[in-house]
Amino acid sequence: MYRIGLGRDLHRLAEGRRFLLGGVEIPFEKGELGHSDGDVLAHAVIDALLGAAGMGDIGELFPSGDPAWKDADSILMMKSAWERVRNNGWQLVNLDCTVSCERPMLLPHREKICRSLALALEADPLTIFVKGKTGEGLGPVGTGEAVEALAICLLEKGPSKETPF
Ligand code: MG
User: Fold this and answer.
1) 6 lies in a domain?
2) How far apart are the C-alpha atoms of 95 and 75, rounded to whole Å?
C-alpha cells in the first residue's frame, strides 16, 4: 500500500532570528519567525509525513500556543512525528521538497540539507531531494518578507519491499 502526503509552510523573515532549513543553519541577515525555531522546511516535511499517514497535522501535534514548543528544535519535532508514523507501519519511499526564497541561494547548502533530513528520518540520502526557487520578485517570497517550503512524500506499508519505480 502506498500513500502520498503534501506539506506546505510559510514563515516571515525577520532580523535577529536564525535561518534554518531542514536543521541546517544558513548564514543570512534574517531568519524565520515562529513559535518554534522556525525551520519552515522541517514543518512542511512534518505535514507531508502526517498527511500521507492520515495522522493529523503539525498544529495538532505541536500546538503553537503550547509553551512546550517555544523555540523548540523543529528537527526533534520532525523526528517525533516520523516516529509516530513509522510506529504505524509506514516506511519512507522518497521525499521531495522545494524551498522558495529570494535570498540566500540554496544550492550551496542543498547537499547538507538533504543529508540532515536523511539523518533525522533515518533514511537513505538518495531518497531525499530539496530544490531551491525564488519568488521572481513577486509576493511575500519575492519581496524577501517570507520563505516558503513545499514537501511531498511517498510512504509504503506492507510486506512488499518493491518500490513503484
Ligand atoms: Mg511553521
Assistant:
1) yes
2) 15
